[in-house]
Design brief:
heterodimer; A: 15 helices; 69% helix; B: 474 residues; mainly alpha; Formate dehydrogenase/DMSO reductase fold
């Protein structure tokens, strides 16, 4: 039997009015303004890195949502139809994320050269040394890739790919609501087949450009896969929260059932393991080989309180969610599922910090501590970018049907049972 | 917050607007075949007289297998030096062959375990043969490290058993991890294969009993372990199968991860790279699907199984090969890019040497077979041309053997010291021993299709419309 969820006390009736996007926009603008002010009154490099963390965090999540939509199309899956429309709405945030990224480029390339990415200024002093980027042989070797012009071109290309794919899958899906034509499904499948490798390449090189090149001496072939894995965890966690939010509002009452939550919960478990597999592969192979040109990256991340941040990733981003998500109840009961979804989103933020912030170092070459008053800028930035993303989502949310009502798999989705799952 | 299951829920208004576009799913058994037809078809292969072609193939396969036997006898009688590896290439063909065969096995476990967990019903028609392929591939793989230890009668030293000298294994070596990983993998694969077969063995027992063939009825009955098909039996069976799928899934991924560690934990340029674990797993699945296609397509034609192994199955297998082949291509690209981006001269040289050095022929063969060949699977017309798909599947096998050859030989023949550079040429014994493993594999596979149900009848019946209690009337 397909068990419908019921949350006593949720007063909203089916078809609740559209939520007020203005609040989200207000939070977004306030967070952005505060962070911008912080740039002038606080340590500009660390505030700028906070903005990079926030933009990177939300971009990785939204791009992973795009990839989930493409994956659902290419697998012809039925259960995912219930959440696909919400992801499609989130994709509206991509163009804003592009705009929100531009200040980082403007600052590091033109206003304060090398402030974020040291290599953007040949005069930048390498941390803990008296050598500048311009005197660094390793930079010379990579200059063909790491230069402002090519970086900008790639940035435009990455967002161009994502925004175009988002535009196409949204357009096709929304148009199908009106005419029920199968050509939109077929078109989305074709674009999904082409879009997945394109998105994969884009997320790979974006992670290299934005995060890995902060420490441009360091290299790792698995780095792009790592960001794909962590982004997917965030996208799935938000998927769970959206399902439960819509259910609590009343929109999904009589629509969402336990099996939908179970399936997305299983994917959360899968990507918890996948992330750990990728993170372990990277750490273990570098630790085991013990070559200084690679290990310095992790040595930095064992300095001061970063050691505990790293440990928190091991135990709180992998071990705890893994054990937690093994339970069926934890995947399908709203309060349990909501808790782990929030947990993963918080730890994903820690993960992005771990990959990003130790690049900012003091004169002695040591990374600044993770826990400090300056953490406040992380939160203003996160709220700023996140508020704008949520605003973009809510604005799109009110423009279409709650579900893709003419999707060929919508009926299977609504009567979705594990035993009949394709 | 409390949570309860509602018996009745008010129908949301939007559900009245739901009107799905019509796009039927592909059927998994064509021509609406009945349960009886499926039983007769699969059991008929075992019950009928041995076809002449089977004897011919069996003879050829056994003859080819004798090459391995002869090669190994010569090796044991003479020494490991009869294989062509020597400094600086102390790992030559044997490790290439080991990784190649282990990789082949992966698709079997992927189809049986991972696709089971993903509830992909199309797996039913091909999983039994793919699992058999896994086991026979592990047998072939095991030959090479086993005999590479030199004195094969001391191979038990690989296990951490107390011995007279108190010598312990090097637990920090991934080769030792291989021993545990591969032996566990082999054991679980056999268990999984066997457990999945129990209902079908019960059916064969009953049919042989009805036909009055008592010896065969006894033997199949022995291995059916008293299967009666009761609710309790089915319940236990389903749970056991699910648990084994859950165990086999991380196991299969760990095996090829550890195989990749054989290389990646070293400092050798071209080997020490962080993407190796997922790259090896993707490559293994790619090669395994190549081999599944190589095996299943002829079986489909010979036994006229088009209703059970449909075009939909072939499409799906081709698409998985396309996806995993493209992942392998991604890994090749990342290796090359990071070799340049990392600015380590040794890494950079290794990859230039791969593409333009003395093994360039192997490198480009690998790229062609593993990256370009699967791109044909984008096209429906190609996927529907069975003969062409079969040829492409052979090229997949060639490409994946070549990949291991390229990884191992290019890095070892030209490492840090130019004074010790060399070029690996296999000996006749190398070639014969490897060639013979195809005979070993073929012999075992032919025995499998002759004596065991090559398709899981019970599972196939479960995905037919007749198995649905509502029978299409929801």
């Amino acid at each position: 039997m397909t068990s419908r969820l019921s949350i006593p006390g949720s007063a909203a009736a089916a078809g609740s009015p559209a939520p007020n996007a203005g609040v989200a926009l207000g939070v977004g603008l306030a967070g952005t303004a505060l962070t911008a002010a912080g740039f002038f009154v606080s340590d500009p490099r660390r505030v700028a890195l906070s903005w990079l963390v926030a933009v990177g965090y939300w971009t990785m999540i939204v791009v992973a949502m795009l990839m989930l939509v493409l994956i659902h199309h290419i697998f012809d899956a039925s259960w995912g139809v219930i959440i696909r429309r919400q992801y499609e709405h989130w994709l509206a945030a991509l163009k804003w994320l592009f705009l929100l990224f531009l200040p980082l480029l403007a600052i590091s390339a033109y206003l304060r050269p090398g402030l974020i990415w040291l290599w953007m200024n040949p005069g930048s002093l390498l941390p803990g040394t008296h050598e500048t980027v311009g005197e660094d042989i390793l930079y010379f070797k990579k200059a063909g890739y790491l230069n402002v012009g090519f970086f900008t071109l790639r940035l435009v290309l990455f967002f161009g790919i994502w925004i175009w794919l988002a535009y196409v899958v949204r357009r096709n899906s929304f148009r199908q609501d009106a005419d029920g034509d199968l050509k939109w499904t077929r078109s989305n499948r074709c674009w999904a087949a082409a879009g997945l490798p394109l998105s994969g390449f884009a997320i790979t090189f974006a992670s290299i450009d934005w995060f890995k090149s902060l420490d441009y001496h360091w290299f790792s072939t698995i780095y792009g896969v790592y960001f794909f894995a962590t982004g997917m965890r965030g996208a799935l966690a938000i998927g769970v929260l959206l399902m439960l939010w819509l259910h609590r509002r009343g929109d999904y009452r009589g629509i969402l059932n336990r099996n939908h939550l179970h399936s997305i919960g299983q994917l959360m478990l899968t990507f918890t393991v996948f992330w750990a597999y990728i993170a372990f592969s990277q750490y273990f192979l570098i630790w085991n080989a013990n070559v200084p040109e690679e290990t310095f990256y992790f040595n930095l991340r064992e300095y001061g309180d970063w050691y505990w941040v790293g440990m928190s990733l091991l135990f709180l981003y992998f071990a705890f969610p893994f054990c937690y998500l093994l339970s069926y109840r934890h995947k399908v009961e709203p309060h349990w599922a909501r808790f782990i979804a929030w947990w993963i989103l918080v730890m994903l933020f820690v993960d992005i910090c771990f990959n990003t912030l130790p690049a900012a170092r003091d004169a002695a070459g040591h990374p600044h501590p993770f826990f400090s008053l300056l953490m406040g800028w992380h939160f203003t930035a996160l709220a700023g970018v996140g508020g704008i993303c949520v605003w973009a989502y809510l604005r799109s949310f009110s423009t279409t049907k709650l579900l893709p009502i003419r999707d060929p798999r919508i009926a299977e989705c609504l009567s979705y049972q594990e035993a009949s799952a394709e | 917050m409390s949570e309860a299951v509602e018996a009745a829920v008010a129908v949301p208004a939007i559900l009245a607007e739901v009107k799905p576009a019509v796009l039927p799913r592909a059927v998994l058994v064509e021509n609406n075949r009945s349960f009886a037809w499926i039983s007769d078809k699969i059991c008929g292969i075992i019950e009928g007289p041995t076809p002449r072609w089977w004897w011919i193939c069996f003879g050829v396969a056994s003859f080819i297998a004798s090459f391995t036997v002869a090669g190994l006898i010569y090796l044991v009688g003479t020494g490991v030096g009869v294989w062509g590896h020597r400094s600086p290439i102390n790992w030559g063909w044997p490790i290439v062959n080991f990784v190649f065969w282990i990789g082949i096995g992966h698709a079997g476990t992927l189809i049986s375990a991972i696709l089971c967990l993903l509830r992909q019903k199309w797996r039913t028609s091909i999983n039994r043969a793919a699992e058999a392929m896994t086991i026979f591939a592990v047998v072939c793989a095991g030959i090479f490290p086993l005999f590479h230890v030199g004195r094969v009668w001391f191979a038990w030293y690989l296990f951490p058993l107390p011995n007279s000298n108190g010598i312990w294994q090097n637990f920090r070596s991934p080769l030792e991890w291989d021993v545990f990983a591969v032996s566990t993998y082999g054991t679980v694969s056999v268990l999984f294969w066997y457990v999945g077969m129990i209902p079908d063995l019960g059916l064969l027992r009953d049919r042989f009993t009805a036909a009055g063939k008592r010896v065969r009825a006894f033997l199949y009955g022995l291995f059916a372990m008293g299967w009666r098909g009761s609710n309790r039996h089915w319940s236990n069976y389903e749970m056991a199968y699910l648990i084994l799928a859950g165990i086999a899934t991380p196991l299969v991924l760990s095996v090829h991860t550890i195989v990749s560690f054989d290389f990646a934990v070293s400092l050798i340029p071209g080997w020490h790279t962080t993407i190796f674990p997922p790259y090896f797993v993707a490559g293994a699945i790619y090669s395994g699907f190549g081999m599944v296609l190589t095996l299943v397509l002829p079986l489909r034609a010979v036994f006229k199984l088009e209703d059970l192994i449909t075009q939909h199955h072939i499409d799906n297998m081709c698409k998985i090969a396309l996806a995993t082949g493209s992942m392998v291509g991604y890994a090749y690209m990342m290796e090359f890019f990071i070799a340049w981006y990392g600015a380590n001269p040794n890494e950079g040289f290794t990859f230039i040497n791969r593409a333009f050095g003395p093994y360039a022929w192997a490198y480009w063969t690998m790229v062609t077979c593993n990256v370009i060949v699967p791109q044909f699977f984008w096209f429906k017309g190609v996927r529907r041309n069975i003969a062409f798909v079969w040829i492409l599947s052979l090229l997949v096998n060639v490409g994946m053997w070549m990949e291991r050859f390229v990884i191992i030989c290019t890095s070892l023949t030209r490492d840090f010291l130019p004074s010790s550079w060399g070029y690996l040429s296999p000996t006749v014994v190398d070639i014969f021993t490897f060639f013979g493993t195809f005979g070993v594999f073929g012999t075992l596979f032919l025995l499998f299709i002759r004596f065991l149900p090559m398709m899981p009848m019970a599972e196939i019946k479960a995905v037919t419309p007749q198995a649905d209690a509502h029978h299409g009337h929801h």
